[in-house]
Structures are given as C-alpha cells and as structure tokens.
Design goal:
3-stranded parallel sheet, 7 strands, single chain, 174 residues
C-alpha cells in the first residue's frame, strides 16, 4: 500500500522571509582617523586638508566605509564631515562608527526598501539561520515594520518555528 507524501509546509500558507537575501555583498572597511593625528593626539586642520586633497579616494569605490577614531583624541565634527565629502563620490555607504554600526545601517536601508503591503495579512516566518551575519537589530527593525500588517509573525524555519505575534481576531491590520 503506497501512501502519498504531503508537504505540509508548502500547503501551510506560510511566507518565508530570509534577511540573508538583504545582505549587501560589498566590502566593508574602516577608515580610522587615528592615522591623521599629529603625535597620536591632535588633528591639525592644515595638514588634514592637505591629506584630503592628495589621498587616492577612488580606492573606496563601491565599498562600505565605517568612519571612526580609535585613539582617545578630540576630533572636531567638521573633520568627519570633510572626510565624508571625500568618500561620498566613491563609497556605497558611509557611517560614523564601527563595522557593526555599518552592518546595521546596511540592513536598515534594505529593510526600508521592503514594501510592508507585500506581507499584508500574511503568516510570515522570519528565517533564523543565515550564512552571513545578520545583526539582531535587523530582526528588531523587521519586526517593527511587519507587525502592523501581518496576520502572524514567526521565527525559525517553516518546519520548526517560534511564534512571536498573532493578530487578535477582532483587530484589523492598519
């Protein structure tokens, strides 16, 4: 007696959303202003402006750049602004902070491009395993964006999920 094998996941109506698909593949680099400090202590405006004019900024083409200073020095805000002006024509993304801050910004921008209406009244499973590092902040942001429109939100894999949210029966999605 042959029994037909049913794919219960396929018939469940679950929509799988994988944040890994929103990972920007570009190279991530840090520009550390410590290399521009005089004696590791201060930033001299005249020398810094000369460096900005002479430096080959094209090496940052298409890259994602985190701008920071890892030395305990007072860096004027305008220095970060001047640096950004030089990077802007070349870099894909520029943030002030660490590589972790950069990664969060890349995911925030990708999530902002998601149309929540595509998930209206859907039962969404946010995939939990990725081959690339997905910051927790991205999961938080995705939850914030989807909760107002989804019927339910789950975490994990369609065959094994953790329920997170289910819209009350008497409440409609706004």
């Amino acid at each position: 007696m042959e029994t037909e094998i049913l794919n219960r996941v396929a018939g469940s109506g679950l929509v799988s959303l994988d944040l890994e698909a929103y990972y920007h593949p570009g190279e991530r680099v840090v520009y550390d202003l410590k290399d521009n400090l005089y004696m590791g202590l201060i930033l001299r405006e005249k020398e810094f402006r000369a460096f900005l004019k002479e430096h080959n900024w094209s090496q940052y083409a298409g890259k994602n750049v985190a701008v920071t200073c890892t030395e305990d020095a007072i860096i004027p805000t305008w220095a970060y602004m001047l640096l950004t002006l030089q990077l802007q024509p070349y870099a894909h993304m520029i943030v002030f902070g660490t590589l972790a801050d950069l990664e969060e910004k890349l995911f925030y921008d990708a999530i902002a491009a998601i149309n929540p209406e595509d998930y209206r009244q859907a039962r969404v499973v946010v995939k939990g395993c990725s081959k690339v590092p997905v910051p927790t902040a991205a999961y938080v942001e995705l939850t914030r964006v989807l909760q107002p429109v989804v019927q339910s939100l789950l975490f994990g894999e369609p065959c094994s999920t953790v329920p997170l949210y289910k819209r009350p029966k008497n409440q409609s999605a706004h």
